[in-house]
Amino acid sequence: MKVEQISIFLENKPGGLAQVTRVLKERDINIRALSLADTTDFGILRLIVDKVQEARDVLKNEGFTVGRTEVVAVEVPDRPGGLHIIVDALSSEGINVEYMYAFVERSGENAVIIFRFDDTDRAIEVLQEKGLRVLPGEKVYRL
Amino acid sequence: MIFNEEFETLPREALEALQLKRLKQVVQRVYHTVGFYRKAFDDAGVKPEDIKTLDDLKRLPFTTKQDLRDNYPFGMFSVPMSNVVRIHASSGTTGRPTVVGYTKRDIDMWAELMARCFAAAGLTKNDIIHNAYGYGLFTGGLGAHYGAERLGASVIPMSGGNTKKQIMILQDFGPTAICCTPSYALYLAEVGEEMGMDMRSLRLRVGVLGAEPWSEKMRQEIENKLDIMALNIYGLSEVLGPGVSMECAEGRNGLHVFEDHFIVEVINPQTGEVLPYGEEGELVFTTLTKEAFPLIRYRTRDISRLMPETCKCGRTFVRMDRVSGRSDDMLIIRGVNVFPSQIESVLMDVEGLEPHYQLIVAREGALDTLEVQVEVSEKIFSDEVRKLQDMEKRIAKDIKDYLGVTAKVKLVEPKTLKRFEGKAQRVIDKRNI
User: Do B413 and A39 touch (CB under 8 A)?
Assistant: First the structure.
């Protein structure tokens, strides 16, 4: 029930992001979700793509530092309070969120929240016990 | 003004006779008391008795900073520890400074040479000297302090840092002279101006500045901002500390080397050949009178040239030009000596770091800055910002702990730093001094 996310180290300089998107475009790799964390000096681009292994390989060949992390995708109805249901469940069990980002599914009915946890297995267990919809990787890559 | 008229104005002939007598003594002494020198002389096939003229000095082997490191900490001392009254050290490789010792007589000699420096700057017992050189293992603080006391001046032992307090004391105590690095003098001027003070109206009239290379342009700037006469002092802890040579207020052109206590040579750093007066090369010093830590032909790596022309001040000592650079890659950052190799060894102790780094040295206002750029390998990369920032902080802390210099660590993408074939150029020095 885990989703593979790739992360890329970027210096804060013009053209850095463009180089990543150009490589992905040339290989016909589609980005499903992304977030960019930035500091004054550098950024970390986190991507969920349809072809994980290929994206990782081509970016490494281009000279980028690429990491691979397991994250968790949770689907909730796209309406007020949707996110709260999840966060409330996690906090009541004392599960710590390292970072998260969200996108809305094409149908517009559901939102998908991507979570990075310290203890991913335990988090999935809790989410499922609470009856929340944890999406398998395959589903997320094809969304 | 001349502190020791008798020695500082000795006719050259008498001076050279004195140098030869003292050279013979020190060569005998190190050969019989320091294992390193005995072996080095034997390997070079030269005996102390072979030194019959000053020209024979060049038959003796050089001593390098590496030799001092190899004999860390006390292996080069020439007297038993019971005769050593003071130990100083300069920054060295990671956790390994260069250690020097002084006997009671060494301290006396040092105090006299520093007193000569102050006198050459026109200072007397009626002056108040604000000493902002660091007190501690660094030789600057205590070296200048003892010299000021020997002169009979009133010394304020400020040490470094705490700039606002320094400015308050400059204003309230009214010192007439200041000792510090030239960049710190400029920094004091700038901070004082920011605090709304008129730094030109202080009672200061003389600056005895050294411990880092500087230029005529910088001298003019300091003199202008503080309304003082800025003079150049030279020294290095291995040879003595501050007080090896000093500019005189009358000439202000080159630093008189106290030749009754040192022999100075200039060599070609590649071949080791001794160069004639006037030619630029690496300074090499032999100490003639030091007891605890004598040095034979010590290679300083400082680039300069010697000027034998007589000076209007009356001193007969040869002058050395201001140091124009280094024959190795040592950097002087805010008065702290840093070798790129030292930073490299700190980086290599951090697990997962690649040996690709670059050092950017710049000057913001009057202060030097050091940026260490390190490539992010997969081993240290994380998708979490906090972990990468912790890594930056950790490296900066290690550099501060081991080398005593504050650095900004910047993570960069892999392969962005230039690769070198052969000798790497790790340093970009943007300082225009």
Answer: no
Q: At what angle do helices B182-194 and B163-172 cross, to 10 degrees?
A: 80
Domain boundary assignment for chain B: 5-328, 332-429
**Tens place of pLDDT per residue across chain B (433 aa):** 999 999 999 999 999 999 999 999 999 999 999 999 999 999 999 999 999 999 999 999 999 998 998 999 999 999 999 999 999 998 654 456 899 999 999 999 999 999 999 999 999 999 999 999 999 999 999 999 999 999 999 999 999 989 999 999 999 999 999 999 998 998 899 899 999 999 999 999 999 999 888 888 889 999 999 999 999 999 999 999 999 999 999 999 999 999 999 999 999 999 999 999 999 999 999 999 999 999 999 999 999 999 999 999 999 999 999 998 888 888 888 878 888 888 888 888 888 887 788 999 998 887 899 999 998 988 899 999 999 999 999 999 999 988 889 999 999 988 777 665 555 678 888 887 6
Contact of B416 with chain A, judged by CB distance below 8 Å, is answered with: yes
Query: Reduced to 3 states, what is the DSSP secondary structure of residue B396?
Result: helix
B412 interface with A at CB cutoff 8 Å: yes
Among candidates A9, A37, A69 on the partner chain, residue whose Cβ is nearest the Cβ of B413: A9
* Residue type for position A62: E
- What domains, with CATH codes, occur in chain A? 3-69 (3.30.2130.10), 70-141 (3.30.2130.10)
H or E segment to which residue B62 belongs: none
A16 close to B (CB below 8 A): yes
Q: Is the pTM of this model over 0.95?
A: no
State the architecture of B5-328 in CATH terms. Answer: 3-Layer(aba) Sandwich (3.40)
DSSP SS3 for A1: coil
DSSP H helical segments within chain A, as ranges?
A: 16-26, 52-61, 82-92, 120-129, 137-141
Q: Looking at the DSSP assignment, which residues form a beta bridge with residue B274? A: B267
Residue with tokens 């590496």, as numbered in its chain: B66
CATH, domain range B332-429: 3.30.300.30
Residue A41 with chain B: CB contacts under 8 Å? 410-411
Going B207 to B210 to B212 to B213, the CA torsion angle's sign is positive
**Which of B413, B417, B418, B419 is the best substitution to test chain A (most A C-beta atoms within 10 A)?**
B413
Asked if A67 lies within 8 A of B377 by C-beta distance, the reply is no
349-378 of B, contacting A, C-beta below 8 A: 376-378
